[in-house]
Every structure is written in C-alpha cells, then in structure tokens.
Amino acid sequence: MTDPARATPREASGSARLSRESIVDAGMRIAARPGTASVTVRDLGRQLGVDPTAIYRHFRNKEELMAALLERLISIASARATVDPLHWKSALTELADNLLATYLEYPAVAAEAAILSTGGSAELDGIEFILSCLGRAGLEGEELIEYYQLFSSHMLALGSIIAQAQIAQAQSGRGGDVERAYVPETVGATHSGHPATAAHRDALLALDDFSVYRTGIRMILDSAAAAGTASALGER
C-alpha cells in the first residue's frame, strides 16, 4: 500500500476524502458505463484520483467491494416500489421488474449478483419482503421456503444472465438494449428428426430473455397463488 507520507498531492487529497460511500458511488458510476464487464480497483483509483491500493483500506478484498455495490443496487431497486405489499402478487411482479431494470442500469454489478450475498440490510429487507408477500398468498412452512427459493433464484440468476448478455452486446457494438433471442436459430430442425421443435419453431424463435424472465415470474406467482388456495381449503 502507498505510504501516505510519500503520496503525491493528488493521491493525498483523494485519500483524505476517500470513504466506503465515495468508493461505492464511484463503483456504481463505473458499472453504469455501457460495455463495462467489471468494476476494477484500478478503474476506481483512476475515477477517484487515488492510488488503487487505497481502496483496500476500506474493503478487505474485491468480493467485499462487489457485495457493497450489490447492496447499493438492491437499495435502488427497492426504493422504486409503489405497490402496496397487501397486493402480494402485484408487489412481487413489480419487484422483479424493478430489479431487472436496475440490473440493466448497472450490468457490471448485476453480472455477479447470482453468486454474491451482501448480508446487508437491503438484502435482508428484500428477503423479508418476499417471504411476507408469499405468506399473504397462504403459503407457510416448507412450502413457503420452496416458493421463496424458486422466485428469488429465477429473478437473480436469469437477471444476472441478461445483464451479462447486455455487456456482451455493448462490447460487440450491437448496443446494450437489444432483446437477445433465447433459443438459437433452429432452421435445421426437421419434422422427421425434431418434430416438436419444428412444429413450434416460430414460437421458439420469438422468445427473448425478457419475455422468458417475465413469463417465469408470472408462472411462479400463479403457482404460489394456487398452492396457497389449496392449503387454505385443506387440500394439502
């Protein structure tokens, strides 16, 4: 690490104002740049005007830094909520939409979201929100946890994949807002060799990441509603 006594005036000035919050602010600005695949300590140092090693005075390692950036992303998405949680299905649908939109604003953070856990208040509030909403559907016990797992894993994993696709598209010059086809071209499918694929070829080619994401959320919540109703009627 750079000795503060030997730092240049620019580095010393930057170090004096450096904090976890200012580092996260800079990291989010970097993450929002089209085509940026990751937030590096070198980029943060350049953005903040400090020696990159100064970042490690505030974060033990890169994983802790990325967790802090993800915590900020979750906070941004959560702050966009407008639906009353009493309307649990609409509230969870809005949460999924808001999270995906925020992922696409900060794809370099979202790309790692599926493998990170922040342990922060925003993440814990999100877990509480999802569980509470699913509880209002009539789910409880093991079934509640199963639907929480299904909903959150679909939202986080596919959202992260979509963010990675946006980064790749931006890097290729195709733009970061192009809806990527979910199924590759299937012109080789024949009725004799792949009858089901050939029969549904047009519908398959019409799929894109966004439609698959939203369809999955809808089907999970519809299933949760049905399961909750069945539990209330004593059918389970």
Structural notes for this entry:
The termini are far apart. The protein has 236 residues and is mainly alpha-helical. The protein has helices at 9-17, 20-31, 41-48, 62-78, 88-105, 107-110, 121-136, 141-172, 195-199, 201-205, 209-232. It has 2 domains: 4-59, Arc Repressor Mutant, subunit A, CATH 1.10.10; 67-232, Tetracycline Repressor, domain 2.
CATH topology heading of the largest domain: Tetracycline Repressor, domain 2
What is the first-to-last residue Cα distance?
Answer: 61 Å
Strand content: under 5%
How many helices? The count is: 11
- Give me the Rg, rounded: 22 Å
Chain-wise SSE layout:
Blueprint: H1 9-17, H2 20-31, H3 41-48, H4 62-78, H5 88-105, H6 107-110, H7 121-136, H8 141-172, H9 195-199, H10 201-205, H11 209-232
